[in-house]
Amino acid sequence: MKKTLLIVTLVIVSISLFLFTYNYKSEQEHSFYTYKLSKLDKTKLKDGDIILRYGYGLVSDLIVETLKPKYNISHCGIVRRIDSTNFKIIHSVSSTISNFDGVQEQSLESFINDSRHNSVIVVRYKCKNDSLLSKISNRAQFYLDKKVPFDNLFEINDSSKIYCSELLWIIIKDEFNDDIFKNSYNKKKDYFKFDLFLDTSKFEIILNHQLLKKAN
Length: 216
What we know:
Layout: H1 2-32, H2 39-43, E1 50-53, H3 58-67, E2 75-81, E3 87-93, E4 102-107, H4 108-113, E5 121-125, H5 134-146, H6 164-176, E6 203-208, H7 209-215
Antiparallel strand pairs: 1-2, 1-5, 2-3, 3-4, 5-6
Helix pairs in contact: 5-6
Protein backbone atom coordinates (compact mmCIF):
# COMPACT_ATOMS: atom_id res chain seq x y z
CA MET A 1 0.00 0.00 0.00
CA LYS A 2 2.81 2.40 0.93
CA LYS A 3 4.67 1.51 -2.26
CA THR A 4 1.59 2.20 -4.38
CA LEU A 5 1.03 5.52 -2.64
CA LEU A 6 4.66 6.46 -3.25
CA ILE A 7 4.39 5.64 -6.95
CA VAL A 8 1.18 7.66 -7.30
CA THR A 9 2.78 10.58 -5.48
CA LEU A 10 5.86 10.46 -7.72
CA VAL A 11 3.66 10.39 -10.84
CA ILE A 12 1.65 13.40 -9.64
CA VAL A 13 4.81 15.32 -8.77
CA SER A 14 6.37 14.47 -12.14
CA ILE A 15 3.28 15.62 -14.05
CA SER A 16 3.06 18.82 -11.98
CA LEU A 17 6.73 19.54 -12.58
CA PHE A 18 6.32 18.92 -16.31
CA LEU A 19 3.31 21.25 -16.54
CA PHE A 20 5.06 23.95 -14.50
CA THR A 21 8.17 23.78 -16.68
CA TYR A 22 6.14 23.71 -19.89
CA ASN A 23 3.98 26.66 -18.87
CA TYR A 24 6.99 28.63 -17.68
CA LYS A 25 8.78 28.09 -20.99
CA SER A 26 5.63 29.08 -22.88
CA GLU A 27 5.17 32.24 -20.79
CA GLN A 28 8.81 33.19 -21.36
CA GLU A 29 8.37 32.81 -25.12
CA HIS A 30 5.13 34.83 -24.94
CA SER A 31 6.81 37.69 -23.08
CA PHE A 32 9.66 37.79 -25.59
CA TYR A 33 7.46 38.96 -28.48
CA THR A 34 5.19 41.97 -28.86
CA TYR A 35 3.01 40.80 -31.70
CA LYS A 36 0.52 43.11 -33.39
CA LEU A 37 -1.01 43.88 -36.75
CA SER A 38 0.36 46.78 -38.77
CA LYS A 39 -1.83 49.73 -39.75
CA LEU A 40 -1.87 48.35 -43.29
CA ASP A 41 -3.03 44.97 -42.02
CA LYS A 42 -5.90 46.59 -40.12
CA THR A 43 -7.12 48.43 -43.22
CA LYS A 44 -7.66 45.04 -44.87
CA LEU A 45 -9.97 43.75 -42.14
CA LYS A 46 -13.74 43.70 -42.58
CA ASP A 47 -16.59 43.04 -40.21
CA GLY A 48 -17.26 39.30 -40.25
CA ASP A 49 -13.76 38.18 -41.22
CA ILE A 50 -12.44 34.98 -39.67
CA ILE A 51 -9.16 35.07 -37.78
CA LEU A 52 -7.01 31.98 -37.22
CA ARG A 53 -4.02 31.71 -34.93
CA TYR A 54 -1.56 29.45 -33.14
CA GLY A 55 -1.69 30.19 -29.42
CA TYR A 56 0.70 29.55 -26.56
CA GLY A 57 0.63 26.69 -24.10
CA LEU A 58 0.27 22.94 -23.94
CA VAL A 59 -3.31 22.81 -25.27
CA SER A 60 -2.40 24.79 -28.40
CA ASP A 61 0.65 22.62 -29.02
CA LEU A 62 -1.39 19.42 -28.59
CA ILE A 63 -4.00 20.66 -31.09
CA VAL A 64 -1.35 21.39 -33.71
CA GLU A 65 0.51 18.14 -33.10
CA THR A 66 -2.70 16.07 -33.21
CA LEU A 67 -4.47 17.70 -36.16
CA LYS A 68 -1.33 18.48 -38.20
CA PRO A 69 -2.93 21.34 -40.17
CA LYS A 70 -1.41 22.84 -43.31
CA TYR A 71 -0.42 25.83 -41.20
CA ASN A 72 0.06 25.81 -37.44
CA ILE A 73 -3.41 26.81 -36.23
CA SER A 74 -4.95 26.01 -32.86
CA HIS A 75 -7.81 28.52 -32.54
CA CYS A 76 -10.19 30.76 -34.48
CA GLY A 77 -12.54 33.70 -33.97
CA ILE A 78 -14.71 36.26 -35.75
CA VAL A 79 -13.80 39.90 -36.36
CA ARG A 80 -16.38 42.37 -35.04
CA ARG A 81 -15.75 45.89 -36.36
CA ILE A 82 -16.62 48.61 -33.86
CA ASP A 83 -15.43 51.58 -35.95
CA SER A 84 -12.75 52.32 -38.54
CA THR A 85 -9.87 51.61 -36.17
CA ASN A 86 -11.42 49.49 -33.41
CA PHE A 87 -12.07 45.76 -33.69
CA LYS A 88 -13.19 43.03 -31.30
CA ILE A 89 -12.76 39.28 -31.68
CA ILE A 90 -15.66 37.01 -30.73
CA HIS A 91 -14.56 33.45 -30.00
CA SER A 92 -15.28 30.48 -27.76
CA VAL A 93 -12.71 29.36 -25.18
CA SER A 94 -12.78 26.81 -22.37
CA SER A 95 -12.48 27.97 -18.77
CA THR A 96 -9.55 25.55 -18.45
CA ILE A 97 -7.41 28.08 -20.33
CA SER A 98 -9.43 31.27 -19.92
CA ASN A 99 -10.87 33.35 -17.09
CA PHE A 100 -14.30 33.05 -18.73
CA ASP A 101 -15.96 29.96 -20.20
CA GLY A 102 -17.59 29.90 -23.61
CA VAL A 103 -18.35 32.57 -26.19
CA GLN A 104 -16.56 35.79 -25.26
CA GLU A 105 -15.08 38.91 -26.78
CA GLN A 106 -11.53 40.21 -26.71
CA SER A 107 -9.85 43.25 -28.21
CA LEU A 108 -8.05 42.61 -31.49
CA GLU A 109 -4.78 43.76 -29.92
CA SER A 110 -5.11 41.35 -27.01
CA PHE A 111 -6.09 38.45 -29.29
CA ILE A 112 -3.07 39.06 -31.52
CA ASN A 113 -0.73 39.41 -28.54
CA ASP A 114 -1.94 36.01 -27.27
CA SER A 115 -0.94 34.49 -30.62
CA ARG A 116 2.47 33.07 -31.44
CA HIS A 117 4.60 35.51 -33.41
CA ASN A 118 3.62 35.66 -37.10
CA SER A 119 1.00 32.93 -36.73
CA VAL A 120 -2.16 34.90 -37.59
CA ILE A 121 -4.15 34.17 -40.75
CA VAL A 122 -7.30 36.11 -41.70
CA VAL A 123 -9.79 34.67 -44.18
CA ARG A 124 -13.10 35.95 -45.57
CA TYR A 125 -16.13 33.85 -46.41
CA LYS A 126 -17.03 34.16 -50.09
CA CYS A 127 -20.59 35.40 -50.44
CA LYS A 128 -22.45 37.36 -53.13
CA ASN A 129 -21.63 40.71 -51.57
CA ASP A 130 -19.15 41.73 -48.88
CA SER A 131 -21.91 43.79 -47.26
CA LEU A 132 -23.46 40.48 -46.21
CA LEU A 133 -20.40 39.62 -44.12
CA SER A 134 -21.81 41.63 -41.23
CA LYS A 135 -24.38 38.83 -40.85
CA ILE A 136 -21.52 36.68 -39.54
CA SER A 137 -20.44 39.13 -36.85
CA ASN A 138 -24.04 39.98 -35.95
CA ARG A 139 -24.79 36.31 -35.40
CA ALA A 140 -21.59 35.93 -33.40
CA GLN A 141 -22.81 38.80 -31.22
CA PHE A 142 -26.06 36.86 -30.72
CA TYR A 143 -24.18 33.88 -29.29
CA LEU A 144 -22.02 36.25 -27.22
CA ASP A 145 -25.12 37.86 -25.72
CA LYS A 146 -26.53 34.41 -24.92
CA LYS A 147 -23.26 33.56 -23.10
CA VAL A 148 -23.15 30.11 -24.68
CA PRO A 149 -20.72 27.88 -22.73
CA PHE A 150 -17.76 26.05 -24.26
CA ASP A 151 -18.37 22.54 -25.59
CA ASN A 152 -15.74 20.43 -23.84
CA LEU A 153 -17.22 17.26 -25.38
CA PHE A 154 -16.93 18.69 -28.91
CA GLU A 155 -20.40 17.52 -29.94
CA ILE A 156 -21.01 19.08 -33.35
CA ASN A 157 -24.76 18.31 -33.30
CA ASP A 158 -25.43 20.05 -29.97
CA SER A 159 -25.47 23.84 -30.20
CA SER A 160 -26.29 24.38 -26.52
CA LYS A 161 -22.53 24.47 -26.03
CA ILE A 162 -20.06 25.57 -28.71
CA TYR A 163 -16.33 25.14 -29.34
CA CYS A 164 -14.31 27.58 -31.45
CA SER A 165 -14.60 26.21 -35.00
CA GLU A 166 -18.17 25.04 -34.30
CA LEU A 167 -19.13 28.68 -33.75
CA LEU A 168 -17.97 29.57 -37.28
CA TRP A 169 -19.62 26.49 -38.77
CA ILE A 170 -23.03 27.07 -37.19
CA ILE A 171 -23.08 30.78 -38.07
CA ILE A 172 -22.30 30.23 -41.76
CA LYS A 173 -24.82 27.38 -41.90
CA ASP A 174 -27.56 29.48 -40.29
CA GLU A 175 -26.92 32.73 -42.16
CA PHE A 176 -25.97 31.42 -45.62
CA ASN A 177 -27.47 27.92 -45.61
CA ASP A 178 -23.99 26.58 -46.34
CA ASP A 179 -22.79 23.57 -44.36
CA ILE A 180 -19.05 24.06 -44.80
CA PHE A 181 -18.34 20.73 -43.05
CA LYS A 182 -20.65 18.71 -45.29
CA ASN A 183 -18.86 16.23 -47.57
CA SER A 184 -15.53 17.47 -46.26
CA TYR A 185 -14.99 15.38 -43.16
CA ASN A 186 -15.84 11.81 -42.22
CA LYS A 187 -14.72 11.23 -38.65
CA LYS A 188 -15.52 13.14 -35.47
CA LYS A 189 -11.95 14.40 -35.12
CA ASP A 190 -12.18 15.91 -38.61
CA TYR A 191 -14.55 18.54 -37.24
CA PHE A 192 -11.73 19.95 -35.13
CA LYS A 193 -9.53 20.72 -38.15
CA PHE A 194 -8.89 24.25 -39.37
CA ASP A 195 -7.76 23.49 -42.94
CA LEU A 196 -11.32 23.91 -44.21
CA PHE A 197 -11.04 27.66 -43.57
CA LEU A 198 -8.10 27.72 -46.01
CA ASP A 199 -10.22 26.24 -48.82
CA THR A 200 -10.05 28.99 -51.46
CA SER A 201 -13.28 27.78 -53.08
CA LYS A 202 -15.15 29.05 -50.01
CA PHE A 203 -12.75 31.48 -48.33
CA GLU A 204 -10.49 34.27 -49.50
CA ILE A 205 -7.18 34.55 -47.66
CA ILE A 206 -6.76 38.20 -46.63
CA LEU A 207 -3.65 37.99 -44.42
CA ASN A 208 -1.21 35.16 -43.90
CA HIS A 209 1.57 36.02 -41.47
CA GLN A 210 2.75 32.41 -41.49
CA LEU A 211 4.10 33.04 -44.98
CA LEU A 212 6.25 35.77 -43.43
CA LYS A 213 7.56 33.22 -40.94
CA LYS A 214 8.40 30.78 -43.75
CA ALA A 215 10.14 33.54 -45.72
CA ASN A 216 12.43 34.12 -42.76
